[in-house]
Design a protein that fits this description.
heterodimer, A: 308 residues, mainly alpha, MetI-like fold, two-stranded antiparallel ribbon, 13 helices, B: 288 residues, 2 domains, 15 helices, 0% strand
Chain lengths: 308, 288
């Protein structure tokens, strides 16, 4: 009894603020982040939903439009062109990214002298500005003086109008996007490959399995969750393509509509035609598509995290 | 048991020369594809306008003079833009690191009601892609009167983001609890425990976040494209875009400008490669 009292007394003796403070300081520490994310991200996101239900040409006050923007959007042939181009770009980028990054992760996982150097070089495109790389690739793609056409001419291939021929323009964007996307996937896949326990390979060696057999029987099943995860983040990133398309086509999505992707469409409607409501509607459609993809990704990332 | 060491050592016996050669061949092809375009750009940045049209194209330029680099500064205010971009990157990074570390620590170690729920909600904001909110963000900047000001380039990024906080939280979770308790017993207050004990221990994670943030801000394009029109406060990526728009066929000068835009992040990368790659692997996991 007396003992209990002592404890009680000492608790009561601590000033009120001291019991309150541990909680309060926790809130205070996270407050700047939360306020900033509410103001600069959450509020704009909700606001754009409202925006998409209005006609707003920036200089005049918004007028309520209901679902008119969405109705117009689905009737707009250019929207379907943009969606189709974006889907083509995404599929065209993601498949080579997965295959090539898997191969490069395996190559970089070799225990060879100088492997650190090769890793550093292969990961380097990660830090190179997309805008600068777009400018550099535009020279490589140049029809008359580009390195690519010269290399192809050695093999007897006729000049290709990489960025001037509507059949090739989207493929050219895909090439650059693959070049830029492989290192990111490689970093993640390499980490997964390195985490496959050695004893599995040892056991397989004892059973006489060769390199190819080991890859299909051990490596691939072990890193499958990570591959699935990398697949989805590559899809999400490719679907948002903008920088590359904007720089390489001078903001037009041309030639014709051959590289007219959703990112370009949003930008043009918002910042060229000042149709803020319509552009916001496109963005919400994009957001819902991406949200669906993210949902898949979240389910996969849990297993990928176990994998790493 | 000592016997088991022998076969183990045997396993790492020298590989067959053919396997070794194939391994290096694969790595060389890979490395060439990765930095070939950049090497070609560096080579082109030294070429004279006439040299660009020579067939077959030469990898080694006839001279290594810096004419094209000098011309970039005549055509666009790149010096100013380099300075601006560095300023934005430094300011945003300082704020990001400070606030992400603070919040990451609180989410890892502080006890407050609803902590983990708040953290999950915060993490969910990673699902909002930058390209999706650019219009309402532009409207917000416009109503604040920040369009075409330095404020638009610095303030929105200054208070941290969910990814940086996630990164710091994961790191603080890995630091043993005892250190903190020992400091508290010694009479350190809440802030001292964090600032003097915990933050210095988090140096590796702070390095990762610093490097990632610097490079992200440096390479940013969509945000400055939408927010900035005034050349005095524009960034290197905008400068390069304008150069490309006005001198689209002057390849040597374009290459010189591109090389200068790529170079600072590459230098940071070469010095902090491990931190950067760790960060990227974790960014992938956080769903970026």
């Amino acid at each position: 009894m007396p003992r209990k009292n002592v404890i009680r007394k000492s608790t009561n003796a601590t000033p009120r603020y001291a019991r309150f403070w541990p909680h309060a300081s926790g809130y205070l520490f996270v407050l700047p982040n939360l306020v900033a994310v509410a103001v600069f991200l959450a509020f704009p996101l909700i606001f754009s939903l409202y925006l998409s239900l209005t006609n707003w040409e920036l200089l005049t006050p918004p007028t309520w439009a209901g679902l008119a923007n969405y109705v117009d959007l689905f009737a707009d042939p250019l929207f379907w062109t943009a969606l189709w181009n974006t889907a083509l770009f995404t599929i065209g980028s993601v498949v080579p990214i997965i295959v090539l990054s898997l191969l490069s992760a395996l190559a970089l996982n070799q225990k060879l002298f100088g492997i650190g150097f090769f890793r550093a070089v292969v990961f380097l495109p990660l830090v190179a500005s997309t805008v600068a790389m777009a400018v550099i690739w535009m020279w490589l793609f140049n029809t008359d003086n580009g390195l690519l056409n010269w290399l192809l001419s050695l093999a007897g291939v006729e000049q290709i109008g990489w960025l001037t021929d509507p059949h090739w323009a989207l493929i050219s964007l895909i090439i650059v996007s693959v070049w830029k996307g492989v290192p990111l996937s490689t970093v993640i896949l390499l980490a997964a490959v390195q985490n496959v326990p050695d004893r599995l390979y040892d056991a397989a060696s004892l059973d006489g399995a060769g390199v190819v057999r080991k890859f299909f029987a051990i490596t691939l099943p072990m890193i499958r969750p990570t591959i699935a995860f990398v697949l989805v983040i590559s899809i999400i990133q490719s679907f948002q393509v903008f920088d590359l398309a904007y720089v390489m086509t001078n903001g037009s999505g041309g030639p014709g509509t051959s590289t007219y992707v959703l990112g370009i469409m949003v930008f043009q409607h918002a910042f060229r035609f000042y149709e803020m409501g319509y552009a916001a509607a496109i963005q919400w459609v994009v957001f819902l598509i991406l949200l669906g993809l993210t949902y898949i990704q979240l389910r996969l990332s849990r297993s990928a995290e176990d994998d790493l | 048991m000592t016997g088991s060491a022998a076969p183990r050592a045997h396993k790492h016996r020298r590989r067959k020369p053919l396997t070794l050669a194939l391994g290096y061949l694969a790595l060389t092809v890979l490395a060439t594809m990765a930095i070939g375009p950049i090497i070609w750009a560096i080579s082109g940045s030294f070429k004279s306008p006439g040299e660009v049209f020579v067939t077959p194209p030469q990898l080694i330029p006839s001279s290594f003079n810096l004419d094209n680099y000098a011309k970039v500064f005549e055509f666009i205010p790149l010096g100013r833009q380099l300075f601006n971009t560095l300023l934005y990157a430094a300011a945003v990074t300082t704020g990001q690191v400070f606030f992400c570390a603070l919040a990451g620590y609180a989410f890892a170690r502080k006890k407050f009601y609803g902590r983990d729920k708040v953290f999950l909600a915060y993490l969910a904001t990673l699902m909002v892609p930058a390209t999706v909110v650019i219009i309402p963000q532009f409207m917000l900047m416009r109503s604040l009167g920040w369009v075409d000001t330095i404020a638009a380039m610095i303030i929105p990024g200054l208070f941290g983001n969910a990814f940086g906080t996630y990164l710091m939280r994961q790191f603080f979770l890995s630091i043993p609890q005892e250190l903190e308790e020992a400091a508290r017993v010694d009479g350190a207050n809440q802030w001292q425990v964090y600032w003097r004990i915990m933050l210095p221990l988090a140096r590796p994670a702070l390095a990762v976040l610093t490097v990632l943030s610097m490079i992200t801000v440096w390479n940013d394009f969509l945000w400055p494209l939408v927010m900035i029109h005034n050349e005095d406060i524009s960034t290197v990526t905008l400068g390069l875009l304008h150069l490309q728009g006005s001198y689209s066929t002057n390849f040597p000068v374009l290459m010189a400008a591109s090389v200068m835009v790529i170079l600072p992040p590459v230098i940071v990368y070469l010095f902090a490669q491990r931190a950067f790659v760790t960060g990227v692997a974790q960014a992938g996991l956080a769903g970026r």
